[in-house]
């Protein structure tokens, strides 16, 4: 037999065997494109924009379909009805966390809160939510902290002297300091090298996580162990952040007053002492470092990126900026700080904040979920542990709920009379049991930081608004806005 013919026959047999193994013994998975051995459907996906690829596939296979990121099947839910049916109507069954190999490598099998699953995750999330409430989440005390930070932010912006500046670092400091005050009790001076280092490491991590290389690494984990690449920068940055957290924890252990806990670390250390005789306890120093780094990362980058994108969109749309500033001047004035009570009297500003979150579609494909048991879903049988991708893009950019969804328009959240209009399709924080634990804080920060900035400054672009590009520079894990400069002109 000709060697070439033999090779073709062998490859054909491998392909048929692979397809048979992928289709047998795994329940009745939804339809999807035919996968190739080992690489699955990767050739049919644009790793620079997975969300767009999934939208295109949904036009062929419908709102529920299967793709293979490598050798493992992933069920994709596209559109509001499918996402709601899973994350809200069957919240418990879809509350698992899907595989994220890079983070799993960084966590070394230990518990966290974002990428953890099972009973350990439930216990840690319950403790964290209770502790955040004890520390003022949802109360006036946390609003005072955000207002204080907004004042510091304004003072830093004044020092730019209305000169062109890149707002990335400045807008990152404020939300980072708020979450630091909750975790460590104290905020940082904006020149503190620890704050600067934390900001730089998380900013770099988000950019790398959204790159095509990391999309490949998460689907082919062997790359993480045997190939050099930017994933090593993420691992190094996370290690450095957690080393700093352990340093602060040792300081807390010395000063701890169990009758008067001051911050998240104090509460965690007290819980550790209570659980010290439980060999299965998830409350360990190693897990504390992971949970705190989860809070720092999620509490800093998502809010700062949204703030940065909001200012860019306002520069691009001066007519929206003018309406927001008119409302701020009319409701708040110039002599007092904006507060959350003002929001009900500021429907256009509230709509602008919501529209920013909808339009930028910060986490296009959500974090991966997994089903916690064998489950029947729309006449398909999805086996326990199967990874679930929920397309938040398909919800936030639904053209029936939001006419012209690719256009930035606060009227998407206003009724005919100009009153604020809620939408069930507004899911930037996800939905169900895996919904962002810091949603309330993030909403407060976005409203108060933006209104305070617009109360004190006029935003001046350095180029013609028509020439401003708002297209994200990467669109993998997160949508990262392009770098830009602007002038903060005092009013």
Task: Describe this structure as you would to a colleague.
There is one protein chain. The chain is an alpha+beta fold and 491 residues long. The chain has one domain (28-490): Cytochrome p450 (Orthogonal Bundle). It has helices at 3-23, 50-61, 80-89, 101-107, 118-134, 140-158, 168-183, 193-209, 212-219, 222-226, 231-255, 264-274, 285-316, 318-331, 347-360, 392-396, 439-456; strands at residues 64-69, 72-78, 96-97, 369-370, 375-377, 380-382, 387-391, 457-461, 474-475, 479-480, 486-490. The strands form four sheets. Strands 1-2-7-4-3 form a five-stranded mixed β-sheet.
Largest sheet: 5 strands, mixed
Query: Between the first and last Cα atoms, what is the distance in angstroms?
Result: 84 Å
- Number of strand elements: 11
CATH class: Mainly Alpha
Taken together, the total number of domains comes to 1
> What would you call the quaternary organization?
single chain
Helical residue percent band: 40-55%
Subcellular location: Endoplasmic reticulum membrane; Microsome membrane; Mitochondrion inner membrane
Binding site for heme: 436
Family: Belongs to the cytochrome P450 family.
Signal peptide: 1-25
């Amino acid at each position: 037999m000709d060697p070439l013919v033999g090779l073709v026959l062998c490859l054909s047999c491998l392909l048929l065997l692979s397809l048979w193994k992928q289709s047998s013994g795994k329940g009745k998975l939804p339809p999807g494109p035919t996968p190739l051995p080992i690489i699955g459907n990767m050739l049919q996906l644009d790793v620079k924009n997975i969300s767009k690829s999934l939208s295109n596939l949904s036009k062929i296979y419908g709102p529920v379909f299967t793709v293979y990121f490598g050798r493992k099947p992933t069920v994709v839910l596209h559109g509001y009805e499918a996402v709601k049916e899973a994350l809200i109507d069957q919240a418990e069954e879809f509350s698992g966390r899907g595989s994220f190999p890079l983070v799993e490598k960084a966590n070394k099998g230990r518990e966290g809160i974002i990428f953890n699953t099972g009973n350990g995750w439930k216990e840690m999330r319950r403790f964290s939510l209770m502790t955040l409430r004890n520390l003022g989440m949802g109360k006036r005390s946390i609003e005072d902290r955000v207002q204080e930070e907004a004042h510091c932010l304004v003072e830093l912006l004044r020092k730019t002297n209305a000169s062109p500046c890149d707002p990335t670092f400045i807008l990152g400091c404020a939300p980072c300091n708020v979450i630091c005050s909750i975790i460590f009790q104290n905020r940082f001076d904006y020149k503190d090298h620890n704050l600067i280092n934390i900001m730089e490491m998380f900013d770099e991590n988000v950019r790398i996580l959204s790159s095509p290389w990391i999309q490949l690494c998460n689907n082919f984990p062997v790359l993480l162990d045997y190939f050099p690449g930017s994933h090593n920068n993420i691992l190094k940055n996370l290690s450095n952040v957690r080393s700093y957290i352990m340093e602060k924890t040792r300081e807390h252990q010395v000063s701890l007053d169990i009758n008067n806990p001051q911050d998240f670390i104090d509460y965690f250390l007290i819980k550790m002492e209570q659980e010290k005789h439980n060999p299965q306890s998830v409350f360990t120093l190693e897990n504390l470092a992971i949970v705190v780094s989860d809070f720092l990362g999620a509490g800093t980058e998502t809010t700062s990126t949204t703030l940065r994108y909001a200012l860019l969109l306002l520069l691009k749309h001066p007519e929206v900026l003018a309406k927001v500033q008119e409302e701020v001047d009319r409701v708040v004035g110039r002599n007092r700080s904006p507060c959350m009570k003002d929001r009900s009297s500021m429907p256009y500003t509230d709509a602008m904040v919501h529209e920013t979150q909808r339009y930028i579609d910060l986490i296009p494909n959500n974090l991966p979920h997994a089903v916690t048991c064998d489950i029947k879903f729309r006449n398909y049988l999805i086996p326990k542990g199967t990874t679930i991708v929920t397309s938040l893009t398909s919800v936030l950019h639904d053209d029936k709920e939001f006419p012209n969804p690719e256009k930035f328009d606060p009227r998407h959240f206003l009724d005919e009379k100009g009153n604020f209009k809620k939408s069930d399709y507004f899911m930037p924080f996800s939905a169900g049991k895996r919904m962002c634990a810091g949603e309330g804080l993030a909403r407060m920060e976005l409203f108060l930081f933006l209104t305070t900035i617009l109360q004190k400054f006029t935003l001046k672009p350095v180029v013609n608004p028509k020439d401003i590009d708002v297209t994200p520079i990467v669109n993998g894990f997160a949508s990262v806005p392009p770098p830009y400069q602007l002038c903060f002109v005092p009013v």
